[in-house]
Amino acid sequence: MDEKYMSKLSPIADFWAGIYLVIIAILSILGNAAVLVCAARRVTLLKAPELLTVNLAITDIGMALSMYPLSISSAFNHAWIGGDTTCLYYSLMGMIFSITSIITLAVMGMVRYLVTGSPPKTGVRFKRRTILMVICGIWLYATLWALFPLLGWGSYGPEPFGLACSIDWTGYGESLNHATFIMTLSILCTFLPCLAIVFTYFGIAWKLHRAYQSIQSNDFQYGNIEKKITLMAVMISSGFLIAWTPYVSVSFWSMFHSQEQDHMTPLITLLPCLFAKSSTVYNPVIYFFFQRTTRQELRRLQRVMFCCSHQLNSAAEVEKAEDQMGKDTDCNIYENGTDETCVGLVGARCHQSESQVMSLG
């Protein structure tokens, strides 16, 4: 076997790296599959920006299914399996999924910035068709960059520790071809997306600050929901950047210190790579937590609106809704902190309307 594909780690380090990757793979597949199943079950109710979160889940589960089995088996084998062919495949998949993820996060930040209104309810609204076209553009953009090394601009190669493959970062100082590819890739697929993420969320924070200074009492619930959705996007983006920053830092160090590459401990190059793979695990956790709390807020807001402004539907519909939801819900839940005038004036109407809303949830 080619020396460059032999593991530079000890067998025990390879074993524990393999165990770690098995755990990451299982959690990634189960978590992101759950996100996709939930999205499929409520596909008609998905708002356009939520499709970006679904796209993130697709990239995460795609990475786990297409890449992790090869890296796991190579770790337990104490050497890369398949040689140049699988190295090329692994690098290609890694480029496509990683670029798709970071560009999706950047677009998510820009969409959230435009959607977030100051005051609330004044932001831009996107159609699902528009977001779907953007997502297709993201995948084409990532695929184009992944194909460039195959077309002669840049190249792929094994990582220094021997159990993964990616861009040949050490080739930066060897030729103008490698140098121009790596610098252009770094600017267009790393630095600019990261700047977009940072500046858009600072802009969102400023918008929300201004909104809460002039917010009307009847818009408070809406503003609270918007804040939670934005916080979810911030946490997902921050988690991705934190997970990948050590790997990018080590890669850039190897670019400018290729002559000193042999002096770097293989474990130092392995740990950032393993840490970066954790980014596929926590996105589903963040998504499910905020989806639950946001949907609860939406339901509370809908109940208040139905209680105070909607008329009764037919008696048959009300009776059917009450049979489905039982007798547990009524407007007494608003006696602590909501408009008691609404409860007092509407009475039975409020109870019936709320039952209808709960049946829809």
From TrEMBL:
Against Pfam families, the record matches this protein to: 7tm_1 (PF00001)
Q: Where are the transmembrane segments?
A: 15-39, 51-68, 88-111, 131-153, 181-208, 229-247, 267-290
Question: What broad class describes the main subcellular location of this protein?
Answer: membrane
Recorded topology in the membrane? Multi-pass membrane protein
Which Gene Ontology MF annotations are present?
Answer: G protein-coupled receptor activity; photoreceptor activity
Q: Which PROSITE patterns match?
A: G_PROTEIN_RECEP_F1_2, OPSIN
Q: Which GO terms of the cellular component aspect does the record hold?
A: membrane
Q: What's in the keyword line of the UniProt record? A: Chromophore, G-protein coupled receptor, Membrane, Photoreceptor protein, Receptor, Retinal protein, Sensory transduction, Transducer, Transmembrane, Transmembrane helix
Q: Where in the cell is it found?
A: Membrane
Q: Which CDD domains match?
A: 7tmA_Opsin5_neuropsin (cd15074)
Q: Where is the G-protein coupled receptors family 1 profile domain?
A: 31-287
Sorted alphabetically, the Gene Ontology BP terms of this entry are: phototransduction
Source species, domain of life: Eukaryota
What's the protein here called?
A: Opsin 8, group member a
> What is the primary gene name for this protein?
opn8a
